[in-house]
């Protein structure tokens, strides 16, 4: 490759260097799959939800770089937990102005908000590309958000709760526990 940049006379209109252009058009799309499980408890006195354990097993086919795949899933799980338990966009009900328009007002999860994640994978290579790899960028987020909310519903199912809208604010869960404004 270095030889391509050695100054030698070239025919008119020909540039020095090496270049290649190729396109790959797979016969179909690939979809990863997985299973996410959360263990969550809700404090009866305060309504505060605490995530005790989170396990995710995903299948992204052949993992070309397992460390990057684990990082993508870890980040996605953190994002999904934040969406379910901490983050919320709030607007003024009278004029529609955003009340959470900056990071001074918009809560984001911190490392202390998470338990240690247990991540694993299975390998089912896809037949539609030569690498047998599948995309995994959204697997953590898509699995974790409903998993967390389902864990909260399960924690409160003894009170007849079958549905809770996100975000899992402590005051919302407290009202459900104490029978004043609960969802079912």
From TrEMBL:
Gene3D superfamilies cross-referenced by the UniProt entry: Aldehyde oxidase/xanthine dehydrogenase, molybdopterin binding domain
Single GO molecular function: iron ion binding
Pfam families, per database record: MoCoBD_2
UniProt entry keywords in alphabetical sequence: Molybdenum
InterPro entries: Ald_Oxase/xanthine_DH-like, AldOxase/xan_DH_MoCoBD2, AldOxase/xan_DH_Mopterin-bd_sf
Aldehyde oxidase/xanthine dehydrogenase second molybdopterin binding domain mapped to chain residues: 14-115
SUPFAM superfamilies in the cross-refs: Molybdenum cofactor-binding domain (SSF56003)
PANTHER family (alphabetical): ALDEHYDE OXIDASE 1-RELATED, XANTHINE DEHYDROGENASE
Protein name, entry field: Aldehyde oxidase/xanthine dehydrogenase second molybdopterin binding domain-containing protein
Originating organism: marine metagenome
UniProt lineage: unclassified sequences, metagenomes, ecological metagenomes
């Amino acid at each position: 490759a270095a030889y391509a940049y050695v100054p030698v006379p070239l025919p008119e209109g020909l540039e020095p260097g090496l270049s290649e252009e190729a396109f790959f058009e797979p016969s179909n799309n690939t979809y990863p799959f997985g299973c996410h499980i959360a263990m969550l408890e809700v404090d009866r006195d305060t309504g505060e939800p605490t995530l005790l354990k989170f396990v995710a097993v995903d299948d992204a086919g052949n993992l070309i770089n397992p460390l990057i795949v684990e990082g993508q899933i870890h980040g996605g799980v953190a994002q999904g937990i934040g969406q379910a338990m901490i983050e919320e966009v709030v607007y003024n009900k009278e004029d529609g102005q955003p009340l959470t328009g900056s990071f001074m007002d918009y809560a984001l999860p911190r490392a202390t908000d998470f338990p240690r994640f247990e991540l694993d994978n299975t390998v089912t290579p896809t037949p539609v590309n030569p690498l047998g790899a599948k995309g995994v960028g959204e697997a953590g987020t898509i699995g974790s958000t409903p998993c967390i909310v389902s864990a909260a519903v399960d924690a409160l199912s003894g009170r007849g709760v079958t549905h809770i809208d996100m975000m899992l604010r402590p005051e919302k869960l407290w009202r459900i526990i104490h029978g004043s404004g609960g969802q079912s």
